[in-house]
Amino acid sequence: MEVEGRIEEQDILIVGGGIAGLTTALGLHRLGIRSLVLESSDELRSTGFALTMWTNAWIALDALGIGDAMRAKSLPIQGCASHSISSLISSCSFSSFSTIAISFQVGCLDSSSSHTDFKLGQFESRCVKRTDLLELLERELPRESVRYSSKIVNIQESGNFKLVHLAHGSVYRAKALLGCDGVNSMVAKWMGLKSPISAGRAAIRGYVVYPEGHGFEPKLYAYFGGGVRLGFAPCDDKGVYWFCTFTPSLFKYDESERDPVKMKQFVMSKISTAHNHVLDVVERTELDSVSLAHLKFRSPWDILFGNIVKKGVCVLGDALHPMTPDLGQGACSAIEDSVVLARCLGEALSEVGDEEDYVKMEKGLDWFGRERRWRSFSLVSTAYVVGILQETDNRFVSFFRKMFLSKFTVEPFVRMADFDCGNLHLTST
Ligand SMILES: Cc1cc2nc3c(=O)[nH]c(=O)nc-3n(C[C@H](O)[C@H](O)[C@H](O)COP(=O)(O)OP(=O)(O)OC[C@H]3O[C@@H](n4cnc5c(N)ncnc54)[C@H](O)[C@@H]3O)c2cc1C
Question: Distance (Å, rounded) from C-alpha 222 to C-alpha 232?
């Protein structure tokens, strides 16, 4: 491709200004490393309303210096109430990662469900509004760190540099290119990774505001069975985030359906046996606060054996490890990626020696790939298996799910969230 006109030089270009892109830019900024984020939307883009964020994400946000600012905008979730629609009634609670005490208790949302109540103890979980997180990240960055309306349409190698072409004709030359461009990442495609696979499942999500306060305890409420999984959690005293994952083909649900009325009707029909205040969460949701997403994941083998780093280019966040949302770990692990990547680049650039910067950056990205490959593999594969086990209507699996609800619900969350990505202190300083 011939390049006409001016080429803008940048050391580090980040493609995509979602959670992965902005946290990466912030991690680098904290280490005094300049980068530029190119985002295709014309403003900060936040789809999906809210997120549950687990201990590993809070450790990573603390490393970036914004943990407390986000804590101030959210409620600490103190437990999980899991319900398997109709059957045995059991519950268990734990106050640390290792202690699980089983006791019996009647479910509080729907007395016909098997019910498991968990106290989260030292484990940190909060439900945060996506806009709160993205706006905070953007505020923490130097002005003009993000260029909107900048859609990348092509990448070329040019000696030791990458030429990045934008839809409106601008061209950038960079020493390192960080693909934070989400599940349909063109950077991942350029690196030769296969397209993500459809999980054959979908999620309807919503956010509801109770002007007078919702009155729910700060818990993550989850229902399993009947081929769906419904969950909701309060973000603050007035806002509640909810989601319902399901397999459209099982219900002959038309996946191209974009009418929020029909989405709400579908969810209501699947939880009709739940207590009124659970139904009310969905019913009250304004139509512009409901959306549907098709669920995709990257083949774990592609993560293990594919090019996740290639000659000064790498992918992170959903561009690296798109996963089904069954562990609530996509964004949490994207923030981990960002801290690790910033640290690896910082370490490499601060090495003494007369190597050119682009060589040091390539080295830093290689370290990142080595550190994150296995973690990404485990997250994607665990999320996939947990999703199948939680949602399936298979009688055999359902029987075991009811008997060992905690094994299928809270334990995998705890295991995957029990991860410390480290801080941003460089060993050389
Ligand atoms: C139903 C559902 C529920 C979820 N719940 C949770 C949860 O509770 N907790 C959790 O941690 N995670 C959750 N996730 C996962 C989470 O949403 C994602 O992992 C996270 O948003 C990934 O962030 P990202 O920055 O990597 O990608 P994205 O958020 O997709 O951002 C990518 C950005 O790149 C931009 N872009 C794309 N292509 C280009 C291009 N060519 N040029 C320039 N810019 C481009 C896009 O506009 C976008 O802004 C959930 C996901 C789903 C589907």
Answer: 7
Cα 318 to ligand 1 centre (Å): 6
Which amino acid belongs to residue 407? K
329 phi/psi in degrees, rounded to 5: -120, -5
Instruction: Verify whether ligand 1 is closer than 6 Å to residue 40 (CB atom).
Output: yes
Choosing from 13, 14, 19, 162 the residue with most ligand 1 atoms within 8 A of its CB, the one to mutate for a pocket test is: 19
For residue 20 and ligand 1, the question of a CB distance below 6 A is answered with yes
**What's the whole-model pTM score?**
0.91
What is the per-residue pLDDT across 275-333, written as a single tens digit (0 to 9) for each?
A: 888 899 999 999 999 999 999 999 999 999 999 999 999 999 999 999 999 999 999 99
List, in order of start, the domains of the chain with CATH numbers.
7-70+128-197+298-386 (3.50.50.60), 74-126+199-296+390-416 (3.30.9)
Which is it for the CA torsion 13, 14, 17, 19, positive or negative?
negative
Quick check: CB of 226 below 6 Å from ligand 1?
no
Smallest CA-to-CA distance from 66 within 23, 127, 98, 114 is with: 23
Cα–Cα distance, 60 to 420 (Å, whole number): 8
